[in-house]
Design a protein that fits this description.
The structure holds two protein chains of two kinds.
Chain A: H1 35-43, E1 48-50, E2 55-58, E3 69-75, E4 85-92, E5 99-105, E6 113-118, E7 124-132, E8 137-144, H2 158-164, E9 168-173, H3 176-180, E10 184-191, E11 201-202, E12 207-208, E13 214-221, E14 224-231, E15 240-246, E16 252-259, E17 264-270
Parallel strand pairs in A: 1-8
Antiparallel strand pairs in A: 2-3, 3-6, 4-5, 4-7, 5-14, 6-15, 7-8, 9-10, 10-15, 11-12, 13-14, 13-16, 16-17
Chain B: H1 3-23, E1 30-33, E2 36-39, E3 57-61, E4 66-69, H2 75-86, E5 93-97, H3 103-106, E6 118-122, H4 125-144, H5 146-150, E7 159-161, E8 164-168, E9 173-178, E10 188-192, E11 197-205, H6 216-227, E12 233-238, E13 242-243, H7 249-268, H8 272-277, H9 290-306
Parallel strand pairs in B: 4-5, 5-6, 6-7, 11-12
Antiparallel strand pairs in B: 1-2, 2-3, 3-4, 8-9, 9-10, 10-11, 12-13
Helix pairs in contact in B: 6-7, 7-9
Classes of the chains: A mainly beta, B alpha/beta.
Chain lengths: 276, 308
């Protein structure tokens, strides 16, 4: 992942939690479009096809809380033997660290949906680029109106946040899917972590609170990889990944995460028979 | 209209505007109980149009000294408040109490920095301001404008409250009480014992939708203790002066409705986007600024209930 000099980026910090997004007009001319440069930096200028037959990217047009913006990546069902999706890269073009996350889909897990929450720092295009096993790239995009997500202060409740630090939770969701298609499961993993962006400032010291974020999360069912996530500062506090996959009958679900200070978090859970 | 008439009309308009501006040098405050004054903020978002004057402000005058409860959303508003106080008394302003650390309640602090004036607040308020002060200054620059923001200074309290603190204004005491994280992580209330007037800060909202920047579960939990305070009237953080404890009914209903709905959605596994979109829909017609804050409140509540 390319190193972005986060602190040297002049992040135009616009809206706080107390300003309505409605009261802000996107004033002035459209800012410079960073996407061509990002295609170069992140994807080595590889060609990309329109991916709308393959993948859908769902985000609110206007985000109410710029520090917690839900995003869902949904792979469209395939009726023929198409090359499977190997990775999905989520790029938030105007963010100081645009590469928000890179998801690697386990070869045998049949992941069909991934949701998480991100920080949006400015009105921006968001791109999702899926790479298939034949080496082709497929891109979709959407536009989100929000500001200030990367510099928004952490933790409404500092005590609660402290008590959560390092905790990992796993949850399976009961759903119609689980009955219709045997083996399809929807689950969620969350980690208590401030995911400090490095752009939040301490008023007293006038220094930025150092970046400290979960940069890797790996999920297995028994020993078979389901999903792994390379994350950056654009992932919201308390990283939360919700996903749909196909169970191989495994009895355990395992997660390992690491943050930029080298802290490691590990947990294993028993998989329920069906639903919760 | 002849040009002469037009000119007369213009001159009259000019005179009206000029006198209106002259009146704006002081902040309108009204006496709600003997020696207790308040300014009711506009129910609106902070902007250069309103000088950020959207929060309620209190003033209590004792035999020897004056206390100010919150200073408004700009130094301009703070100065106008100071002028209003000086128009009524020349007693020293001994205490400026910030009910919590949100910009609409403390951006006016700089107008009151003076020898002999102590800033009072929750024991967690200095840390809250350290973490968020700069962010607020940057965030509000666009809507408030450079002129208003350039004057603002983040002034933290030096007299800290953990539990209760009694302040004496000369023959008149105020009880400042620190609360657990609820609306924010540094909420205090101020009780004037002489008139049984409760300045509740943003622990109480009327008309203006309650804003959640702390913990919804804890806020709900403390409402009974808040209601038990022996006040006859409350000055909420936003909205009209009201009887106590009846004033809590609306806010309790909103928080309970929001909490119940979101808790159920979390238990049912409803994803965050869907759950927050239609949260507390039954409350829509009952609050101003509903669309500005409700989904944000729901998002905060959702994250909290996920970890419950």
């Amino acid at each position: 992942m390319p190193e972005f000099a986060i602190r040297s980026v002049c992040a135009a910090i616009l809206l706080s939690a107390f300003l309505s997004p409605h009261s802000v007009s996107a004033a002035g001319p459209e800012p410079y479009d960073p996407w061509p440069g990002l295609v170069q930096d992140i994807f080595d200028s590889r060609p990309m096809e329109d991916g709308s037959n393959l993948i859908a990217l769902e985000m609110p047009t206007r985000a109410e809380d710029a520090a917690i913006v839900p995003v869902t990546l949904r792979l469209k069902p395939t009726f023929d033997a198409r090359p499977r999706v190997v990775t999905i890269t989520l790029v938030i073009d105007q963010n100081p660290a645009p590469m928000a996350a890179k998801f690697k889909l386990g070869a045998d897990a049949n992941v069909s949906e991934i949701s998480t929450r991100v920080r949006i720092n400015n009105y921006t295009n968001v791109h999702a680029v899926a790479e298939t096993s034949d080496g082709k790239l497929h891109v979709v995009q959407t536009y989100v109106k929000a500001s200030g997500g990367c510099s928004a202060p952490a933790a409404k409740n500092a005590e609660e946040a402290k008590s959560r630090l390092g905790q990992m939770r796993y949850r399976e969701f009961a759903g119609a899917q689980n009955e219709e298609k045997s083996g399809t499961r929807e689950a969620q993993v969350m980690i208590g972590h401030p995911n400090n962006s490095g752009l939040q400032m301490d008023q007293v010291s006038q220094l930025y609170i150092p970046a400290l974020y979960v940069d890797r999360l790996q999920l297995w069912q028994d020993n078979s990889p389901v999903l792994s996530v390379e994350g950056g500062i654009s992932i919201s506090e308390d990283p939360n990944i919700r996903f749909t996959y196909v169970s191989n009958g495994a009895k355990t679900f395992r997660a390992e995460a690491k943050d930029t200070d080298g802290h490691q978090f590990r947990h294993e859970w028993k998989v329920n028979g069906s639903g919760m | 209209m002849t040009s002469r008439l037009a000119m007369h009309a213009a001159l009259i308009m000019l005179a009206m505007v000029a006198s209106a501006r002259a009146q704006q040098q002081t902040l309108a405050i009204s006496e709600i109980a003997p020696g207790v004054f308040m300014h009711q903020g506009r129910i609106a978002l902070m902007s250069s149009d309103n000088d950020g004057a959207i929060a309620n402000i209190g003033v209590v005058i004792g035999e020897q000294a004056v206390a100010v409860i919150d200073t408004g959303g700009s130094v301009r508003e703070g100065r106008q408040l100071l002028a209003s106080i000086r128009a009524r008394t020349d007693k020293p302003i001994r205490y400026v109490i910030n009910t919590h650390g949100h910009p609409d309640h403390m951006f006016g602090n700089a107008a009151f920095v003076a020898d002999g004036t102590e800033f009072v607040g929750h024991i967690r308020l200095p840390q809250a301001l350290a973490a968020r002060g700069q962010y607020y200054l940057d965030a509000f620059r666009r809507s408030m404008g450079d002129a208003l923001i350039d004057d603002v200074r983040i002034v933290p309290p030096t007299r800290l409250v953990d539990g209760e603190l009694v302040l004496d204004l000369g023959g008149r005491t105020l009880i400042v009480k620190a609360w657990p994280t609820a609306h924010s992580d540094s909420d205090v209330t101020v009780f004037d014992t002489a008139t049984k007037t409760l300045f509740a800060g943003d622990l109480v909202f009327l008309r203006h939708i309650p804003v959640l920047d702390g913990s919804i579960q804890a806020w709900l939990k403390l409402l009974d203790d808040l209601a038990a305070l022996p006040a006859e009237r409350v000055v909420p953080g936003h909205g009209p002066v009201s009887d106590w404890p009846q004033a809590l009914a609306g806010e309790r209903r909103y928080l309970e409705t929001l909490a119940a709905g979101i808790r159920k959605d979390v238990i049912d596994g409803k994803p965050i986007a869907a759950a927050t979109k239609h949260a507390a829909e039954a409350e829509r017609g009952k609050w101003e600024l509903f669309d500005d804050y409700n989904v944000r409140n729901a998002t905060a509540a959702y994250s909290q209930f996920e970890w419950e």
